[in-house]
Amino acid sequence: MALTKFQKRNKIRRRIRKSVSGTADRPRLSVYRSNEQIYAQVIDDKAGVTLATASSLDKEFKKEGSKSDQAKKVGELLAKNAKEAGVEAVSFDRGGYRYHGRVKSLAEGAREGGLKF
């Protein structure tokens, strides 16, 4: 039986999560993208706490440009929010998506915002 697109992504996602975990000094930057929006969180898995979030639905976010441009702005916004929460370095969890397009743009925006991967 062939796997659906969702099942394939979840299989890859579980494989990634085996090795990527967030701690207090190096939390996990988790990415989720839908067809229209992109969401990112900085998570401390040991304590089970979300330290910072950003998405293309935030009030201070302006929707301009392509989806990749928007993802880059979300990355910069996330970096700003993470800095306010005292986070300097993160482990990148691409969530089963290829490191390409919007996911890559978000990562580059977060790096430009000052987060270390």
Structure explained in plain terms:
The chain is globular, with a radius of gyration of 14 Å. It has 3 helices and 4 strands. The mean pLDDT is 94. The protein has a single domain (19-112), classed as Nucleotidyltransferase, domain 5. It has a 4-stranded mixed β-sheet with strand order 3-2-1-4. The chain is of the alpha+beta class and 117 residues long. The chain has helices at residues 5-19, 67-84, 102-112, and strands at 28-33, 38-44, 49-55, 91-93. The relative contact order is 0.20. Strand 2 (38-44) and strand 3 (49-55) form a beta hairpin.
Helix content: 25-40%
The neighbouring-strand order within the major sheet is 3-2-1-4
* Text of the CATH class: Alpha Beta
Q: List unreliable stretches of 5+ residues.
A: none
Q: Quaternary state, please?
A: single chain
**3D shape:** globular
Counted by DSSP, the helix tally is: 3
Strand element count: 4
CATH topology: Nucleotidyltransferase, domain 5
Average predicted confidence as pLDDT: 94
Distance between the termini: 38 Å
The SSE order reads HEEEHEH
Portion in strands: 15-25%
Question: Top keywords for this entry?
Answer:
117 residues; 3 helices; alpha+beta; 4-stranded mixed β-sheet; Nucleotidyltransferase, domain 5; 20% strand
Task: Give the helices and strands, then pairings.
Elements: H1 5-19, E1 28-33, E2 38-44, E3 49-55, H2 67-84, E4 91-93, H3 102-112
Parallel strand pairs: 1-4
Antiparallel strand pairs: 1-2, 2-3
